[in-house]
């Protein structure tokens, strides 16, 4: 590596975490985010760095464009995905307050451009001139894209944040009720219109649709308990998952499972269960300890 290459790499490294956050929020995949950041690094090393006036603005624009291209192909793959799709979980010690799992799912309903405009402006604080530059659109077009996106995701905006320890208490109680077979306690914890999302990706048992309503959730829970959630499971840890209280378990088949819960008005409004092993590989690398 030449002295110039070393200098370019040194300028890139402090901005790697920011680009990783942008890419993960746009793509919902840690692995894809890492790939996009690595591609950005490769392209950055080919740039005439004397022409770059602001490294951060330049690299944010680059990562946004790479992710946009990736999203266009990802949308085609999603159409053939087996069962409900959930993003790869981000495990947190303290809850993320401005970018929760329900918001990530709401973004999935947007076009790639709307999604990028919303994230770059509303989440990462870029002005519309910079957003338009990143998306190769005018500032006014970028403003309209973000406004349309905001209208679609308003209902999923972060609610009043739950106190961290209370959230973990909810997760602990739900885990105990769901694994002990205490159906009465489980039923009492769920909102009447609660929704159950389970992502197995066709690789592990999971519901093939989003299940809504207490009784249907109880029924699907009993079915999953018979084939997957038995006594031979281990609670690895309580945690926050993309801003929601939840827990990680090691299931009878030796694979990890991540469960996130959406509390609302004293009840659980939604349950999100990630079982697809391809989306949990990053956790076995030490993030669960």
Descriptive terms for the model:
289 residues; Rna Polymerase Sigma Factor, Chain: A; Nuclear Transport Factor 2, Chain: A; 3 domains; 7 strands; 49% helix; elongated
Would you kindly provide a written description of the structure presented here, covering whatever features stand out?
Helix content is 49%, strand content 16%. It has 289 residues and is an alpha+beta fold. It folds into three domains: 1-80, Rna Polymerase Sigma Factor, Chain: A; 101-108 and 116-157, no CATH class; 164-285, Roll (Nuclear Transport Factor 2, Chain: A), CATH 3.10.450. A hairpin with a 5-residue loop joins strand 5 and strand 6 (256-264). Helix 2 (16-27) runs parallel beside helix 4 (55-78), helix 3 crosses helix 4 and helix 6 packs across helix 8. The longest helix is centred in the N-terminal third of the chain and has 24 residues, at 55-78.
Classify the fold: give the CATH topology of the largest domain: Nuclear Transport Factor 2, Chain: A
Inertia-based shape: elongated
Report the span from N to C terminus.
36 Å
- β content, as a range? 15-25%
Largest sheet: 7 strands, mixed
Rg result: 21 Å
Number of E-type strands: 7
Please state the second-level CATH architecture of the largest domain: Roll
Would you list the SSEs in sequence order as H and E? HHHHEHHHHHHEEHEEEE
Low-confidence stretches: none
Give the topology, please:
Elements: H1 3-12, H2 16-27, H3 30-44, H4 55-78, E1 91-92, H5 101-107, H6 112-123, H7 128-135, H8 139-153, H9 164-180, H10 183-189, E2 190-199, E3 211-212, H11 214-227, E4 234-241, E5 244-250, E6 256-264, E7 267-274
Parallel strand pairs: 2-7
Antiparallel strand pairs: 1-4, 2-3, 4-5, 5-6, 6-7
